[in-house]
Amino acid sequence: MHDQHGRIINYLRLSITDRCNFRCRYCMPETGIEKQAHQQILRYEDLLRIARVATSLGIDRIRVTGGEPLIRRGVVAFLKQLSVLPGVQDLALTTNGMLLGEMAKSIFEAGVKRVNVSLDSLNEQSFSDITRGGSLQQVLDGIETAAAVGLQIKLNMVVMRGINDDEINDFARLSLDRPWSVRFIEYMPTIQEPDWQKRLLSGDEVLAQIRHEFNLTPLESSGQCGPSRPFKISGAIGTIGIITPMSNHFCSSCNRLRITSDGLAKSCLLSDETVDLKPYLQRADDCDLQQRIEKIIFAKPSRHTINEAGAVHKPFTMSSIGG
Ligand code: SAM
Ligand code: SF4
Q1: Which atom of ligand 2 is least distant from the CA of 317?
Q2: Would the CB of 175 count as within 6 Å of ligand 2?
Q3: CB 61 within 8 A of CB 90
Q4: Residue 219 and residue 228 in contact, taking contact as beta carbons nearer than 8 Å
Q5: Which of 58, 201, 262, 304 is most exposed, with minimal Cβ within 10 Å?
Q6: Considering every ligand atom, which ligand is closest to the CA of 16?
Q7: How many other C-beta atoms can be found within 10 angstroms of the C-beta atom of residue 21?
Q8: Could you count the other beta carbons within 10 Å of the beta carbon of residue 215?
Q9: CB of 319 sitting under 6 A from ligand 2
């Protein structure tokens, strides 16, 4: 369906848990986050109900995210049920990759065709520092397994000045001989770390670094690119993507609706506004739920203001929303 600004909203991001086996420094504080109580987390049947209603309103792409979605028990059976919902054309997953080695095959068989893996360093020590304890080798092995079973791979690197910006070209190089999309995402000050300003590095700066070493050609955007501006290094099999939520926001083409694992609907990632769907899930039929979701989609704000001077935002952890 269309929102009040004429955008077609056809993409749902479903967060199925706020739990995570990492503590990425840009996503949550070192002390972790206050976890939602178990009874607050939506049951799979409620998530499926929301997805079914959303598809009746024109959603045809669903991405399952978290926290870390692969740590929730029963996720494979849930993915299978989602993939066969009428109207779902594309089912994808965002993961930190730690459990991909053991789960990639069953995820693929459940109907997921594409995975986005968050990977912010190719250096074991730096990877462990950024994720506060993750194992780089386990994630790399998981990505190889995912590719081998037939999953399409996108890698997402959040670029932070002074932390991992010296690895930009190492990441770009990964696109040379693999059919992967390597995407560079501008760091967003979601948890408002004290030093966040000095971590910001724009997509243009990333492009300049890549161009320093490689010949880059812009590509035509396809439906699969989302907010990413696609490029190709001459002779590469894979592609490069630049995602610029800070320096050049893509709100005018945003097609997303988000649902958090505790049932809050959010039509803009960077707006503080949420609507609790839980009361509507207590009703036997879907009429009210459908009307509420319809209203949320229609009222989607025209743009976010996180990068505007004077704008005040409540800090939030991306793990509770799903990115
Ligand atoms: N745990 C999964 C993962 O890491 O892929 C899924 C959830 S995670 C919250 C989804 C995405 O949000 C990841 O790609 C992560 O890099 C991104 N993200 C989290 N905090 C961010 C921030 N402050 N700026 C930019 N991207 C962020
Ligand atoms: Fe966990 Fe993903 Fe957040 Fe990292 S970015 S802490 S993996 S939810």
Answers
A1: 3
A2: no
A3: yes
A4: no
A5: 58
A6: 1
A7: 15
A8: 11
A9: yes
**How many angstroms from the chain centroid is the CA of residue 47?**
17
Higher pLDDT, 175 or 223: 175
Nearest-CA neighbor of 323 among 93, 135, 8? 93
Q: Identify residue 63 by its one-letter amino acid code.
A: R
The Å distance, Cα 27 to ligand 1 centre, comes to 6
CA torsion, points 71, 112, 269, 99, in degrees to nearest 10? 30
How many A from CA of 302 to the centre of ligand 2?
A: 27
Q: Ligand 1, atom 21: nearest CA belongs to which residue?
A: 27
Q: Which ligand is nearest to the CA of 130?
A: 2
Ligand 1 pocket residue status of 46, Cβ below 6 Å: no
* 70 touches ligand 2 (CB under 6 Å): no
Q: What is the pLDDT of residue 224?
A: 60
Per-residue tokens: 272: 């503080």
Q: Which helix (H) or strand (E) holds 13?
A: strand 11-15
Question: Alpha-carbon dihedral of residues 85, 91, 97, 103, nearest 10 degrees?
Answer: 40
Give the closest residue (by CA) to ligand 1 atom 10. Answer: 323
Distance CA 198, CA 249 (A): 20
**CA-96 nearest atom, ligand 2:** 7
- Angstrom CA distances, 112 to 17, 79, 94, 105, 187, stand at 18, 7, 11, 10, 27
In the chain the domains, ranked by start, together with CATH numbers, are: 11-320 (3.20.20.70)
pLDDT in tens, 228-285: 999 999 999 999 999 998 887 778 888 889 999 999 998 887 777 888 999 999 998 9
Whether 118 lines ligand 2, by a CB cut-off of 6 Å, is yes
